[in-house]
Amino acid sequence: MTQKTALITGITGQDGAYLARSLVDKGYRVVGAVRRSSTLNLPRLVSLEVAQEVELKTLDMQDFTSIVRLIEEVGPDEIYNLGGQSSVQASFQQPLYTGETSGMGCLRLMEAVKLVLPEARLFEASSSEIFGLKGSGVVNESQDFHPRSPYGVAKLFAYWAVVNYREAYGLHVSNGIMFNHESPLRGMEFVTRKITATLAQIASGGQQTLMLGNLDNARDWGFAGDYVEAMWAMLQQPEADNYVVATGKTHTVKQFVELAAKAVGLDIEFEGEGLEAKGIDRKTGRQMIGVSKSFYRPSEPDPMVGDASKAKEKLNWEPSVDFEALVTMMAQSDLERAGKEQAWY
Question: Rounded to 5 degrees, what are φ and ψ at 318?
Answer without folding.
Answer: -155, 155
